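Need residues for this backbone.
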């Protein structure tokens, strides 16, 4: 039992709506190696799920990723090949937005090679920049994939806590990314002239 209140501890199951009619719900984070019959038995022990119909059961998925700190430059090029970029979940960024952001950076740098321009790296004060710094930190020995988060960003120079700290870090990130875009003359894909890229 829990020492302060002597109550028995319990866990909370997060359910996420999985269809428009609100008839299917996804049990968030229920990856498992249990057999399907055993999952049905155990999950029906959860209060409220005794009579649940399980449409899709959990399974473990393998998260394959490269040793980015050893293999990649902050431009997302391989250290051993200027013309080869890696991106997405395989470089150790977790999440759809993070994967898309890494892909955009690799695409910008691939285009910069074609146009004989300097390659760019977003500032570490930004979400994408701090994540790229994390995955390409050559001093890191026990590398594991990561989502973008405030903990990867450099500390603020002013004292702030809680919500105020996040607001300040967000404002600093927006200013940093805007300055980076301006300094590097990064254009949106719709404003660029079409070109053929061959690497």
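Answer:
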């Amino acid at each position: 039992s829990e020492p302060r209140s002597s109550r028995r501890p319990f866990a909370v199951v997060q359910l996420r709506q999985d269809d428009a009619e609100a008839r299917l719900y996804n049990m968030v984070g229920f990856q498992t190696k249990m057999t399907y019959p055993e999952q049905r038995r155990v999950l029906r022990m959860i209060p409220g799920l005794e009579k649940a119909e399980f449409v899709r059961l959990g399974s473990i998925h393998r998260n394959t990723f490269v040793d980015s700190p050893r293999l990649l430059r902050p431009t997302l090029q391989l250290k051993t090949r200027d013309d080869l970029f890696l991106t997405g979940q395989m470089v150790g960024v977790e999440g759809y937005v993070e994967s898309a952001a890494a892909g955009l950076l690799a695409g910008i740098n691939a285009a910069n090679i074609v146009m004989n321009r300097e390659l760019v790296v977003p500032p570490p004060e930004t979400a994408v920049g701090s994540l790229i710094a994390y995955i390409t930190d050559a001093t890191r020995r026990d590398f594991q994939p990561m989502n973008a988060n405030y903990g990867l960003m450099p500390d603020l120079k002013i004292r702030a806590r809680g919500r105020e700290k996040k607001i300040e870090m967000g404002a600093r990130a927006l200013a940093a990314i805007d300055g980076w875009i301006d300094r590097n003359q990064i254009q949106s894909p719709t404003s660029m002239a079409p070109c053929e890229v061959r690497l």
